[in-house]
C-alpha cells in the first residue's frame, strides 16, 4: 500500500514538473505582435510583393533594434483602424495618424516621426472663366462705382461754371447739361481729347486743371483696383481664416484629423473613404475644395498625373504630427519610443525622409 502511494506521488510530481516546463517553454517563446495598417500612400502601400512605404520602412528600421516578431493586420479604412487600436484588436499601428486632443482620450501616441500639414486642394480654373466670374465680383463693381462717382463730381462742377456762359457746349440748364459735363469729365480723364467740349470760364478752367492732375493719380489707383479684380487669383488669397471655408463646398476623409479640424470649427463638409476617393470626388465636383494631409494629396496628384488639373494651395490650415498609435495605457510605447528617437538621429533615417519628400 505504501509502495503504491509513493509510486503515485512520484508520478504526480513528474507530471507537474512536465507541465511547469511546458508553461516555461510557452512563456519564454517570443510574442508575435499584431500591427494594424490601412493603405495610405506614400506611407503605407500594398503591392504583389507585400506592403511598403515610409511608415513601413521607418518601423522596420526601429525593429532592427527591437527584434520583435510581428505581422500586419489590414483594415479597410482609417476609421476601422482607429477603432481597432482603441479596442486593442491590434498591439499598435504604424500608419501616419495625426496626434490630436480628441484622439488622445482613447489611444496613446509615440514620439512623432513625421511633420505634415493640413492642406487645401482645388481644381484649376481656366483664365477666361475666372475673368468673367470676377466681372461680377463686388470688388470690381465697387471700384467701378467709385470711378463713375469721381467722374460725375468733376463733370458736375465744370457744368456749374459753364452752364450759362458756355451753354452751347455744356447743354445749359437741366439734366442734359449735367450729362454733357459727365461726358467732358470722362473724356478728359481718359486723355482721349476729342475737343468737342472745353471750359471757357475761369472757374471752369481751374476745375479742369485740378481734374487733369488729379485724374492721373485717381485713374492709376482705380485702374489698379479694377485690374486686381479682373486678375485671375488663386483661391489661396480668398481664405484668410478658417471661418471663410464655410463659403465653399468642402470634402474631407472620414475620421481623419482634417475632418476633426473641420468639425471643431463647425465647417459643413462631405466625407470620403480615403485620399484616392477625395481626388475622384474633386474631379467630379470642380467647384469644391478637398481638405486633407499635404503629403498624401501631393502623392495622389502626382501618381494620377493630375498636376495640370488640380493644385494644392500654398496656404495651409494647420501643422500635423504623425505618430505610431497604441491602445490606451499600452506598455509597448515605453519600449518603442526610445528606439524610435534613437533611429531618427541616424543618417539612414535622414535618407529615408529625403527619399519620400
TrEMBL record:
The keyword Phosphoprotein does not apply. It is found in: Membrane. Residues 1-22 form the signal peptide. Residues 32-357 form the Solute-binding protein family 3/N-terminal domain. It is a multi-pass membrane protein. Keywords: Glycoprotein, Ion channel, Ion transport, Membrane, Receptor, Signal, Transmembrane, Transmembrane helix, Transport. SMART domains: PBPb. The chain crosses the membrane at residues 140-161, 206-230. It comes from the Bacteria. Its main location: membrane. This is Transporter substrate-binding domain-containing protein. It comes from Mesonia profundi.
Amino acid at each position: 500500500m505504501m509502495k503504491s502511494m509513493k509510486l503515485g506521488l512520484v508520478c504526480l510530481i513528474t507530471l507537474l514538473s512536465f507541465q511547469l516546463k511546458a508553461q516555461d517553454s510557452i512563456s519564454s517563446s517570443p510574442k508575435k505582435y499584431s500591427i494594424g495598417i490601412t493603405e495610405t500612400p506614400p506611407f503605407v502601400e500594398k503591392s504583389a510583393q507585400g506592403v511598403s512605404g515610409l511608415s513601413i520602412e521607418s518601423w522596420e528600421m526601429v525593429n532592427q533594434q527591437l527584434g520583435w516578431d510581428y505581422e500586419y493586420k489590414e483594415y479597410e479604412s482609417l476609421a476601422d483602424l482607429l477603432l481597432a487600436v482603441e479596442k486593442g484588436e491590434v498591439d499598435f499601428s504604424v500608419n501616419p495618424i495625426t496626434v490630436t486632443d480628441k484622439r488622445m482620450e482613447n489611444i496613446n501616441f509615440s514620439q512623432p516621426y513625421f511633420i505634415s500639414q493640413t492642406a487645401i486642394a482645388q481644381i484649376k480654373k481656366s483664365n477666361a472663366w475666372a475673368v468673367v466670374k470676377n466681372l461680377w465680383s463686388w470688388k470690381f463693381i465697387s471700384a467701378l462705382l467709385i470711378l463713375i462717382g469721381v467722374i460725375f463730381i468733376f463733370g458736375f462742377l465744370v457744368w456749374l461754371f459753364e452752364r450759362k456762359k458756355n451753354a452751347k457746349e455744356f447743354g445749359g440748364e437741366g439734366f442734359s447739361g449735367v450729362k454733357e459735363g459727365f461726358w467732358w469729365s470722362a473724356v478728359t480723364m481718359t486723355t482721349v481729347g476729342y475737343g468737342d467740349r472745353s471750359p471757357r470760364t475761369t472757374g471752369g478752367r481751374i476745375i479742369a486743371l485740378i481734374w487733369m492732375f488729379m485724374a492721373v493719380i485717381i485713374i492709376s489707383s482705380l485702374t489698379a483696383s479694377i485690374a486686381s479684380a479682373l486678375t485671375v487669383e488663386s483661391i489661396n488669397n480668398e481664405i484668410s481664416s478658417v471661418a471663410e471655408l464655410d463659403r465653399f463646398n468642402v470634402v474631407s476623409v472620414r475620421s481623419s484629423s482634417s475632418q476633426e479640424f473641420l468639425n471643431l470649427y463647425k465647417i459643413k463638409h462631405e466625407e470620403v473613404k480615403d485620399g484616392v476617393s477625395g481626388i475622384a470626388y474633386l474631379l467630379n465636383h470642380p467647384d469644391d475644395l478637398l481638405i486633407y494631409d499635404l503629403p498624401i494629396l501631393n502623392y495622389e496628384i502626382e501618381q494620377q498625373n493630375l498636376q495640370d488639373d488640380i493644385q494644392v494651395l500654398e496656404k495651409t490650415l494647420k501643422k500635423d504630427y504623425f505618430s505610431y498609435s497604441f491602445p490606451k495605457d499600452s506598455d509597448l510605447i515605453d519600449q518603442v519610443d526610445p528606439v524610435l528617437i534613437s533611429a531618427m538621429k541616424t543618417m539612414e533615417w535622414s535618407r529615408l525622409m529625403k527619399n519620400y519628400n
